[in-house]
Amino acid sequence: MEMHRLDPRTSVPEALRAVLSRIRPVERTELLAVPTAAGRVAAEDVTSRVPVPAFPCSHVDGYAVRTRDLKGVSATRPVNLRMVGAIHAGECFPRALAAGETVAIATGAPVPHGADAVEMFENVDATGRSIQFSLNVVPGENVDPAGGDLASGTRIVTQGTPLTPALIGLLSLAGYGQVRVYARPVVGVLSSGNELRPPGPEPLPYGKVFEANSAALSALIEPNGGVPKVLPPVRDVASVLERALRRALAASDMVVVSGGSSVGERDLLHTVLPRVGTVLFHGVKVRPGMPTIAAESGGKVILGMPGHPASCLSNALWLLVPAVRKLSHLPGDGTSRVRVRMARDTPLHGHGFSTVVPLRIQGETARSTFHGSHFITSLHPANGYAILPPAKRHLRQGESIYARRALFLGGA
Amino acid sequence: MEMHRLDPRTSVPEALRAVLSRIRPVERTELLAVPTAAGRVAAEDVTSRVPVPAFPCSHVDGYAVRTRDLKGVSATRPVNLRMVGAIHAGECFPRALAAGETVAIATGAPVPHGADAVEMFENVDATGRSIQFSLNVVPGENVDPAGGDLASGTRIVTQGTPLTPALIGLLSLAGYGQVRVYARPVVGVLSSGNELRPPGPEPLPYGKVFEANSAALSALIEPNGGVPKVLPPVRDVASVLERALRRALAASDMVVVSGGSSVGERDLLHTVLPRVGTVLFHGVKVRPGMPTIAAESGGKVILGMPGHPASCLSNALWLLVPAVRKLSHLPGDGTSRVRVRMARDTPLHGHGFSTVVPLRIQGETARSTFHGSHFITSLHPANGYAILPPAKRHLRQGESIYARRALFLGGA
After folding, report:
1. pLDDT per residue over B354-380, tens digit each?
2. Superfamily of structural domain A336-409
């Protein structure tokens, strides 16, 4: 058995930069019904088709008036106007309001031509059709002018903007039933290793392991904008891996491989990747996750992750997630940066490399959930993580650090 | 036109409690392929089918040894063992290791019977089949014992746990290809109002508005665990609304109606809801969003939201989202609480009620995006919000408050 030592030369920021600089966000677009487009990214600028509101609109229940009819009005000098109708939302008054006239108007209904304000119903005395006003009313009072929220032709969405629930509402209000968004990038997910067996009720032969990385990676790809495409696991044979990789590349916008990323005899990625593309780096100065390799082929990035599920997932957090997000036109790494205090002393195990520490963040306190880099149980209680620099040997209890809180890890 | 004043008596916490106490999380379950179950909630406890690792496993590339063969070894007293084979991942050595023997072993491969440690390949001198050891090796070194990460039969998922990417990986490792999760609750979405027109290229008649609430509410329901079921808008006719509500209730686990929630002549919810169920409250001491009504019918909650898109969406953040999440077995309100400083002086407009302030949170700073309760453009730059108590009249520049940051609003 040939054995080699992997001597990584690439730091975490260098690895991230190398990968992100090769990622080209997908250019394919699709037309979606607006209510289903939340979380997707606009592929074009959108301007409002109509002003919002589309007409001068009452924002109270009351009486539409011509304010000049109410000049000098006061409690001691009330003015009576004649009610000539009522306007509910969705209706419109068929003519201009004439001198001495008022109309009852509901919230959301169009203020009739001629009228320039609405008095709230609580402030008048109504006796049949005679409406008595005793408070001053200024032009524009309780009226949202046409286009006051949004003028027609205003740009409401810029190409590249993720569509939030409020933007979905705004697009609808502005008259759009459909919106053009970027297609979700397809991320091929390939696991390699003779030891892998599909999880299921079949007994596990001695020496084999249930294949977990494709499921865990899919679960990270999906909430970060990608469509995971899980491919059948491949055996540790260079020609087989090469063929599978080429097929995966043809069918995806990016490929992530787990297993075979180190330098052992059956670690084939460093042999196969140069045949398929250009290797960007092999080995990252980070623990866990050091034996990581990346390549680029025909404008597509291939990430080779360590086969151990804990290292694979740890790497995916800081390397795969930002890559998938960039491919998807989504910003950042999907986390929010929060300042936290460490709940207890936490030794780091970087041994001169950066350390990725999985964290359980609660309020402004965090505790490491790490209890061994070979333990996937180190990761599942975490709702965030921190990357500590190589020089950092441990975190003291009460020490304040920046952590990355990730809803996609399940932490609310 | 009949006009009334709504005099709300219910505070924000009371309204939330009244709704949440009536929500019964869905009991329906479904069996899903594990890789597609991320974000869903486990409907049963799951225990590991196998120990993880399933066998004593090397976590380095090196040589498996019987440590008693290396007693007293040192640089000056090296020991030579005979290499009798090699074990790659997925293979197993066919017999127990005998005295004086060693086998080459790859990371992830099973340590053969008889052997009790693995020496890293960097620490030996290999000459053909003769392997020279010169460092002390302790029992267990570089070996993950069977079940060291997870003993067989360990509970890995508890009923009610949301499935994170790490748990998806753990379920797979533990031998599960499928997992039973709670069904996603169906949330009926109904808009009411004669003024509503479906968004689209058709010109908007004067006095009408494009219907936006069903799209915006769907966009909030979906990332919080629910399946929005948008129903056709209904006209302001009590019998029509009642029929539509009953149909919506029959087809959903909860119903949200927008429009008609106040006390105007065409605000029909307060008339119709008592026929369909029990009204929980009508009017909440909050701005925006005061004219909100809630009812319960046959164990299902109905929320009636104001028709104005900005008020409707604002209410949905603190009332609908937690309700949908509870229905979905998801905890909390989908936000993370962060301490922020206000970037500038911000007057509040609660006028004696609580105020919901939409916030753009960046790092530890927040600014209000509110510029008028009738403006949906007040909301779309927000990636979080805060609810300020009635007594609070304004926020000073630099003042520190707790804000709720919401990834579902698009803020990373």
Report:
1. 999 999 998 889 999 987 766 778 888
2. MoeA, C-terminal, domain IV (2.40.340.10)
Neighbouring residues of A281: CB distance < 8 A, sequence distance ≥ 6: A8, A9, A10, A14, A15, A18, A292, A293, A294
CA distance A382 to A349: 17
Q: How far apart are the first and last CA of chain A?
A: 47
* Residue B410: pLDDT over 50: yes
Is the pLDDT assigned to residue A412 strictly greater than 50? no
Residues A57-144: name the CATH superfamily. Molybdopterin biosynthesis moea protein, domain 3. (2.170.190.11)
Gap between the Cα atoms of B370 and B12, Å rounded: 19
In angstroms, the separation between the Cα of residue A372 and the nearest Cα of chain B is 9
CATH superfamily, region A29-50+151-182: Molybdopterin biosynthesis moea protein, domain 2 (3.90.105.10)
pLDDT one-digit tens code per residue, A353-397: 999 999 999 888 999 998 776 677 888 889 999 999 999 999 999
**Are the beta carbons of A208 and B331 separated by less than 8 Å?**
no
Q: CA A306, CA A322: separation in Å to the nearest integer?
A: 18
Region(s) of chain B under CATH 3.90.105.10: 38-51+149-182
Contact between B377 and A332 using a beta-carbon 8 Å cutoff: no
Helix (H), strand (E) at residue A321: helix A321-327
Task: Provide, as residue numbers in chain A, all residues whose Cβ is less than 8 Å from the Cβ of B169.
Answer: 212-213, 215-216, 219, 309, 313, 376, 379-380
8 A C-beta contact, residue B399 and residue B347: no
Give me the residue label for tokens 């700073």. B365
The CATH superfamily assigned to B38-51+149-182 is Molybdopterin biosynthesis moea protein, domain 2 (3.90.105.10)
Q: In which residue ranges of chain B is CATH 2.40.340.10 found? A: 336-409
pTM of structure: 0.94
CA distance A64 to chain B (A): 13
Between A378 and A196, the more confident residue is A196
Considering chain A, tell me which residue range(s) the CATH 3.90.105.10 domain(s) occupy.
29-50+151-182
What ipTM does the predicted assembly reach?
0.93
Structure tokens given for B190: 């109904």
Bridge partner list, A281: A294
Residues B219, A164: C-beta atoms closer than 8 Å: yes
Fold of the B12-27+184-327 domain:
Molybdenum Cofactor Biosythetic Enzyme; Chain A (3.40.980)
